[in-house]
Amino acid sequence: MSKFSTALTASLLALAVGLAAAGPTLAEDQVTFGAPYLRMGVGPRALAMGGAYVAAAEDVTAGYWNPAGLMEIDWIEASFMYSDMSLDRNYNYFGYGHHLAFGAIGFTWINAGVSDIKVNRTGWSGNEDYKDNALLFSYGTGLGGISIGGSAKILMSKFGDESDTGFGIDGAVRFTPSNTLAIGILVQDIGTQYWGEEVPTNLRVGLAINSPDQSFTIAADAEKESEQEVLFHLGGEIRFMYIEDNCAALRAGMRSGREGQEEDTVFSFGAGITFGQASLDYAYLPEQQDFMDSSHRISLTGRF
Q: What is the total count of domains within the chain?
């Protein structure tokens, strides 16, 4: 058996063991979730690939997907993502990553909300806005093919005259036995409290395989949250040079749905282009509830 086959077999075993361990490690009383925007994901590249990004994360969005992946940033990266969504919803993201001598640091800001929600209270009725903001402060370090990382997060929410603040922690590991294989494990929301409730801990395990010339990537993730069923994510990307030192990419992915959602499986698509030290990326994302229509994500990323 070749070294690649051995590493691939070990990776698949790690994926299976991680999922088997998810049940007993997640608190059984975590059955409500007051912050669903924390699971929506960031970055058109990752989202176009169906959210299969825990192992593939090696850019500034690793602050969300796998903080250990921040170690792959050459020096500095910054990215802004805008979302076009139906029903007066908004969901935007800004990320910053910096590779230093002692590791890599990252900052993530996620802004989400819904406008003009009709509210009826005693003696008053009208429209209110619901606003969520999450700030993630991340750090990653590593030696050889193993990196570890984590994020401390601050959650801030406001609805009308009411507001709340929550805190939480993410932890992650990324293992790269070769330049063609990566394994990632992410545990989100360890002890996160929000609106008087405990946000369910979420375990994600992922595998990413790159071609030897780095021209394509195939990735798969599985995630397990509390007592929910296991969700699967699968995605791929093809990259090709269009001008020397500049490349374009085509991406596609799929993700499974939870019980009760109108679509069991949703397919996503996207593309990206680099020009110098910048890149422009786009993702088309159908919703798993038909009444929400489709949404679009677009981002601009700079490398310094």
A: 1
